[in-house]
Amino acid sequence: MMTSYIDDCLDALPVAAKGQIVLVLGAGKTGLSIVRWFAGKGVTVVLADSHSDAPGIAQIRQEFPKMTIYTGPFNDCIFTDVDMVVSSPGVPLKEIPLQKLKKSGVPVIGDVEIFLRENVRQRGGNVIAITGTNGKSTVTQMVESVLNACGLDVVAVGNIGIPVLDVLVQIELGLREMPDVFVLELSSFQIDTTYSFQYDASVVLNVSEDHLDRYRDFEAYMQSKFRIYSGRGAKVVNRDDLMILNATSDLNEVITFGLSPPDTDRSWGVSEIAGDQWIVRGQQQICRCRDLRVPGAHNVCNALAAFALCSTLVCVNEAAVKGLLSYEGLDHRMQWIADVSGVRFYNDSKATNVSATAAAISGMPTRCVLLLGGQSKKQTFDALVDLIRQKVRAVVLIGQDAKLIRQGIESSGVTIFEASDLKSAVRIASRVAEPGEIVLFSPACASFDMFENYAHRGDVFADAVRSLV
User: Fold this and answer.
1) Residue pLDDT tens, the chain, 469 long
2) Could you say which of 18, 29, 77, 101 would form a disulfide bridge with 42 (CB–CB 3.0 to 4.6 Å)?
């Protein structure tokens, strides 16, 4: 387990020193940012990617033509005689010989660990850390919007798409000032290669089944998430999620949020006031839920988490509320694309797990045709059966695990189609949906069987819809 490896190495973890050899794993955006960070610091950087056709290889060769680069499946020789391994989150830990490296005293870290140590050692910026199975990017952007409205210079980094070391490089080159606050969105994969948890505030928004292709079981995935609470700073806790509540029962500095009325001044929640549902802190009225520009109870919960996190750094005043109410939502998250012949098409490509898709279906105001599929990550799809039976006219499946998904949902009794690609799926859905209904693309799966990422998948969907007009 990576956690035991981390616990053993925590106190001894060195910072890369001049003359050392650093092995960087992964040639994507994060890998490139790590290489750029170490450039000019007197260390020798070696890069390895298990894919011979990794899209970032050409860019790295162009910027660093003398760098040694290995491609193809990892073997033990690339880990020999290195002083540190810095792994991108896309690299499964099972591909790294952790026990061998542990015996040699070679640490395995990620870019977030480098950032946190650098920040503590030299910079001292405020850091808010956000993880969870769903809602991470939404809450990250909500926090950014609130704090910017309060007059702070804020940068959102990490899993949201901007590698945190790119920002540090920009600061070192004088291309930007040190921000007041880093809002750090963290996947479980990033947490797995982080040792230091030096945050002003942190949150696990929710935990549900996901990434079981990368973890031994759900318990291991859940424990990865909970490690974010192991350092200093305020712990923001979702009291509606019993797994999180039970796991954090002995923590100090806890601030809770949930959709029930709060019972203390350190709690955020929802209360009915004069016939309206209000976001409140203790007895303090903050704003009406219906004034949020992003609909649904899950987004009220996201707003509560964002306010709770921000309250550790600023007073949640009129400016803060204005900042949150200006937030209009994420691309590829319940994003309206077009109305075609009376049918509304929504892009929810960012729904990469079953619980995200369940939330999307629950929020449908009318019956829909649902597009599902991709890489299932060993999830089960039984949780969608009742929702599909209640709210879905038909399902169109795409991707690698279409047959597995069919087996999981066929007891719903709805008509199920299979399509060879996403454009064909959109055509089928447009024929099946009736005027006044919705076509919902909420895949519940990872995108990498057919696309570069969820954004690429969402763009392909949007283009396919617009071709119908």
Assistant:
1) 334 444 444 444 556 778 899 999 999 999 999 999 998 888 999 999 998 878 789 999 999 999 999 999 999 999 999 999 999 999 999 999 999 998 999 999 999 999 999 887 777 889 999 999 999 999 999 999 999 999 999 999 999 989 999 999 999 999 999 999 999 999 999 999 999 888 999 999 999 888 888 888 999 999 999 999 998 899 999 999 999 999 888 887 899 999 999 999 999 999 999 999 999 999 999 999 999 988 778 899 999 999 999 999 999 999 999 999 999 888 888 888 999 999 999 999 999 999 899 989 988 889 999 999 999 999 999 999 999 999 999 999 999 999 999 999 999 999 999 999 999 999 999 999 999 999 999 999 999 999 999 999 999 999 999 999 8
2) 18
Query: What is the distance between the alpha carbons of residues 65 and 403, in angstroms, rounded to a whole number?
Result: 45
Collapsing DSSP to helix, strand or coil, 204 comes out as strand
What phi and psi, each to the nearest 5 degrees, are found at residue 430? Answer: -65, -30
CB atoms < 10 A from the CB of 325, how many?
Answer: 17
Q: Where in the chain is the domain with CATH 3.90.190.20?
A: 335-466
Quote the distance between the C-alpha of residue 350 and its chain's center. 9
Model confidence pTM above 0.70: yes
Structure tokens, 348? 């929810």
For residue 212, how many other CB atoms are within 10 A of its CB? 17
CATH of domain 113-325: 3.40.1190.10
Beta bridge partners of 23: 46, 85
Q: Are 362 and 195 in contact (CB under 8 A)?
A: no
Are 293 and 328 a contacting pair, CB within 8 Å? yes
Mutual orientation of helices 454-466 and 422-432 as an angle, nearest 10°?
Answer: 50
As annotated, the residues of the chain forming the CATH 3.40.1190.10 domain(s) are 113-325
Kindly state the helix (H) or strand (E) to which residue 218 belongs, with its residue range: helix 218-226
Rounded Cα–Cα distance for residues 181 and 127 (Å): 6
Pick the CATH number of 18-109 from 3.30.1140.32, 3.30.70.100, 3.40.50.720, 3.30.70.330: 3.40.50.720
